[in-house]
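Collaborator request, handled under Task 6.
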Amino acid sequence: MERENSADLNARAERALRAAAGDPEQEGAAREELLRLSIPLVDAVVRESFSNSGFSADELFRPGYLGLLNAVYNFDLSRGQPFATYAENLIKGEVRGHIRDQAARTAAPQWMHDLNRQIERAQARLLRDSGRLPTLAELAEAVNITEDGIAEIFKAREALRYVSLDAVQREKDPAPQIDVNRIRSLRPVPFPIEYRVRIASALEQLAELQQSLVQRLFDPTAEEGGRSPSV
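Structure tokens returned to the collaborator:
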């Protein structure tokens, strides 16, 4: 959005919300009016920041509008941040999330989701018990996975989430790789994590093969000339 338009929007937001302060009904009306006035900001952000994303402006407007809603109804004058800047950041965040969700090429394996949840639960528990964020060593001890294994899980998680916002660059995004050999139990246990990860990976590959075989069974081209589905 042009600088003068942003400045005008900031001034209107401040005047309206200050005038309505202390009156919930007036404040609600002021925020509704601010929402109406701010809709062009969504179009401007999409046009200026995401024109090369490979997604249409109409598609990106929808998540952008959700970001604007969030901004309008959570904007707090006391924080001292200009409204337009605050709204642009939330609009961009929603649009980026939409692009990455829609363009992600590789789904994380189920065992990765399970390990992530285990690590997040351990982090929350350690934070609650100690009042501070845990170190990598403390997390490793809590979930019985080596520090190298935890680091590999974090690296793989970010690689699986990474998607370029530019459509051309997205074609060159590196394929995520997970070194499962680094994910090992810290302490000896009867059923170590490295065995569980390998078994889970094999089961997921079998599930993909099973799905492929079922599709081949009902592939009409396989019946041409009396041929059986090949496997």
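The cover message to the collaborator said: "The chain is about 70% helix and 0% strand. The two ends are 56 Å apart (CA to CA). Please let us know whether this matches your experimental observations."
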